[in-house]
């Protein structure tokens, strides 16, 4: 069975009170339309047809070639919107799924069940529509499903057109349909114009019923068909998506101490036996290994963290931490920061575009930028790489086992040799040879003694 999907995303979204189209408002790091697309994309081979109108440049530039676009120049209702998509529906399509892009919680599973229902009835020569329904005590905002005494569907009546009896109906239209393609082609152009001057897609249901065509329904979980019309709905929908993602991680072995205060985007990967403390935001292409402790209160974006790491009250962006390293409280890894194995980075530190070799200790308020720091280097409190002269960024290289005294200014470009030491408060403007001790302003070399540990001997 060949299926084409149509997603309606042309509306104004007036109640969002926004400069941006409703479907571009983000939930868990992705625009609403992205979530809606993912549900349908998994079920069709060809890219879905997205009907765009208001704010279409943003929608198009976000989805790019994930979709085929149909432009709705005048917003004359959902029926009119689907009509614009019709020329793009594959000639040999058997069925057309239509859904609305303001339903970010629709799952693949529910859509798949609707398709299965359609397939089950597909051999019937009269089948016209398979659609989801939903039951809700407060039906406000939905079209009502009107049934005949034999239980068959007679119509969907829009709220504004309901009689008082119809208003009380609690079986509602979420707006997810699977149409028989040929029947849709024949009938879509004949939807009558409503009192409001719109062409309601939902009128196809009464048209099918009056032709004696079959309409089959499937009740969807209420949560799946949550429609976002304003920013209160947006926050509620996001909370549900957030919980779904957290549950997936928890079931895979991640401890989330306080799900209510934890925000993890669905792109993030986390190993088992890692604990996420309250107040964490884990975003983008972040990958976290096993047995880590993350948080409390940390933001981690596009960062790779190996096993057995610890992050406390810190912000990490496009960085990397190797096994056993730790950071925080109150530190910052910026783009290109890479902490080697077992690095200890304490409070009020910042690292950017730098590699800190295995075992480096950087305990207190330091800035390391554009640097390569060897293994087991001690970076004293207040050390700063002066990497920027106002025009150029320059590099600092520190050899293995060097000891950088507190408050050292390393004026780049500069090289500190292995086992070298700097005295407290030094301003290092020239390279320091291996094993040398330098101090002063500007720093001068005062002595050189071989500090290589004897072969086989223990360090310290
Ligand atoms: C629609 C249904 C209603 C259903 C409800 C569920 C119709 C006539 N009514 O009403 O039965 O209970 O959804 O939420 O379909 N859109 C366009 N072009 C248009 C108008 C709308 O692309 O000219 C798009 C919107 O961007 C939106 C979707 O269609 O994604 C639904 O439009 P909306 O105006 O929100 O419909 P409702 O009044 O909620
Ligand atoms: Ca709506």
Can you list the strand order of the major beta sheet? Answer: 13-16-19-22-25-28-31-34-37-40-42-43
Tell me the major beta sheet. 12 strands, mixed
Helical percentage? 10-25%
Instruction: Supply the helix-strand structural class.
Output: alpha/beta
User: What is the count of DSSP helices, taking H or I runs of 4+ residues?
Assistant: 8
Which ligands does the model contain, each kind named once? uridine-diphosphate-N-acetylglucosamine, calcium ion
Share of residues in strands = 25-35%
Structure commentary:
It is built from eight helices and 43 strands. It is α/β, with parallel strands linked by helices and 460 residues long. The protein has a twelve-stranded mixed beta sheet with strand order 13-16-19-22-25-28-31-34-37-40-42-43, covered by helices on one side. Strands 1, 4, 5, 6, 7, 8, 9, 10, 11 and 12 form a ten-stranded mixed beta sheet that branches. The model has no long low-confidence stretch (mean pLDDT 96). Residues 8-11, 51, 72, 75-78, 80-81, 100-102, 142-143, 156, 158, 172-175, 200-202, 227 line the site of uridine-diphosphate-N-acetylglucosamine.
Give a concise summary.
With 460 residues, the chain is α/β, with parallel strands linked by helices. 17% of the residues lie in helices and 31% in strands. The termini are far apart.
Reconstruct the topology from this structure.
Elements: E1 3-9, E2 26-27, E3 30-31, H1 32-41, E4 49-52, H2 56-63, E5 68-71, H3 78-85, E6 95-100, H4 108-121, E7 127-135, E8 143-147, E9 153-157, H5 164-167, E10 171-173, E11 176-180, H6 181-187, H7 203-210, E12 214-219, H8 231-251, E13 255-256, E14 263-264, E15 269-270, E16 275-276, E17 281-283, E18 287-288, E19 293-294, E20 299-301, E21 304-305, E22 310-311, E23 315-317, E24 320-321, E25 326-327, E26 332-333, E27 337-339, E28 344-347, E29 350-352, E30 354-356, E31 361-364, E32 367-369, E33 371-373, E34 378-379, E35 384-386, E36 396-398, E37 403-404, E38 409-411, E39 414-416, E40 421-422, E41 427-428, E42 436-439, E43 444-448
Bound molecules: uridine-diphosphate-N-acetylglucosamine and calcium ion.
The site of uridine-diphosphate-N-acetylglucosamine has 27 residues, from strand 1, helix 3 and strand 10.
């Amino acid at each position: 069975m060949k299926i084409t999907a149509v997603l309606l995303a042309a509306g104004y979204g007036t109640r969002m009170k926004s400069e941006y189209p409703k479907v571009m408002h983000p939930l868990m790091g992705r625009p609403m339309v992205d979530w809606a697309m993912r549900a349908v994309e998994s079920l069709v081979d060809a890219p879905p047809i997205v009907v765009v109108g208001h704010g279409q440049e943003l929608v198009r530039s976000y989805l790019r070639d994930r979709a085929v676009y149909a432009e709705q120049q005048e917003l004359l209702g959902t029926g009119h919107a689907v009509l614009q998509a019709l020329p793009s529906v594959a000639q040999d399509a058997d069925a057309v799924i239509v859904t609305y892009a303001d339903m970010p919680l629709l799952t693949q599973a529910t859509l798949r069940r609707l398709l299965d229902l359609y397939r089950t009835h597909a051999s019937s020569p009269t089948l016209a529509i398979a659609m989801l329904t939903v039951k809700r005590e407060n039906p406000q905002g939905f079209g009502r499903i009107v049934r005949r005494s034999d239980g068959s569907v007679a119509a969907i009546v829009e709220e504004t057109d309901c009689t008082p009896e119809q208003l009380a109906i609690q079986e509602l239209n979420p707006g997810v349909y699977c149409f028989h393609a040929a029947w849709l082609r024949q009938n879509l152009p004949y939807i009558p114009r409503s009192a409001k001057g719109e062409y309601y897609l939902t009128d196809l249901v009464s048209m099918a019923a009056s032709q004696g065509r079959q309409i089959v329904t499937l009740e969807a979980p209420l949560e799946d068909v949550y429609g976002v019309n304003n920013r209160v709905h947006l926050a509620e929908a996001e909370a549900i998506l957030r919980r779904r993602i957290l549950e997936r991680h928890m079931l895979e072995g991640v401890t989330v101490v306080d799900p209510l205060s934890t925000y993890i985007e669905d792109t993030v990967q986390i190993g088992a036996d890692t604990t996420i403390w309250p107040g964490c935001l884990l975003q983008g292409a972040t990958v976290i290994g096993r047995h880590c402790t993350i948080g409390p209160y940390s933001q981690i974006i596009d960062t790779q963290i190996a096993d057995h790491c610890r992050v406390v009250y810190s912000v990490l962006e496009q960085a990397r931490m190797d096994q056993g390293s730790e950071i925080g409280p109150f530190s910052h890894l910026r783009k290109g920061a890479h902490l080697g194995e077992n690095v200890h980075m304490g409070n009020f530190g910042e690292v950017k575009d730098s590699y800190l070799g295995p075992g480096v200790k950087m305990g207190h308020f330091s800035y390391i930028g554009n640097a390569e720091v060897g293994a087991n280097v001690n970076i004293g409190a207040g050390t700063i790489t002066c990497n920027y002269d106002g025009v150029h960024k320059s590099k600092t290289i520190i050899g293995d086992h060097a000891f950088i005294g507190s408050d050292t200014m390393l004026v780049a470009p500069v090289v500190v040799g292995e086992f070298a030491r700097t005295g407290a408060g030094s301003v290092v403007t020239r390279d320091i040879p291996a094993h040398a001790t330098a101090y002063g302003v500007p720093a001068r070399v005062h002595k050189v003694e071989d500090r290589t540990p004897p072969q086989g001997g223990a360090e310290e």
